[in-house]
Amino acid sequence: MEDKRIRILKALAHSERLKIIEMLKKEPTCVCEMNEKSNFSQSNISQHLKILRDADLVKYTKDGNKVIYSLANEKLMEVINLITKISNEL
């Protein structure tokens, strides 16, 4: 079984998934709104969200026909901010 830390790092290791996480840090959002705010296709966003869900980084709730995504843990932004600081220092 793959180490959960590795699954999380793999899920974060894609620019589009990082952009999705950046969108979700502001507020819970549905795929349709992510589509409007980005250049990603709806199917592409859904594929990336599945990877993020499988890594337990995002969660979702249903609101009628909409599926609303949010960060599963706010500490995720601390990790991303730390990685950003490290990358800026290199």
UniProtKB/TrEMBL annotation:
Ranges of residues in domain HTH arsR-type: 1-90
Signal sequence range: none
Keywords noted in UniProt: DNA-binding, Transcription, Transcription regulation
Pfam families: HTH_5 (PF01022)
Gene3D superfamilies: Winged helix-like DNA-binding domain superfamily/Winged helix DNA-binding domain (1.10.10.10)
InterPro entries, per the entry: ArsR-like_HTH (IPR011991), HTH_ArsR_DNA-bd_dom (IPR001845), Metal_resp_trans_reg (IPR051011), WH-like_DNA-bd_sf (IPR036388), WH_DNA-bd_sf (IPR036390)
GO molecular function: DNA binding; DNA-binding transcription factor activity
Designated name of the protein: Transcriptional regulator
Species assigned in the record: Tepiditoga spiralis
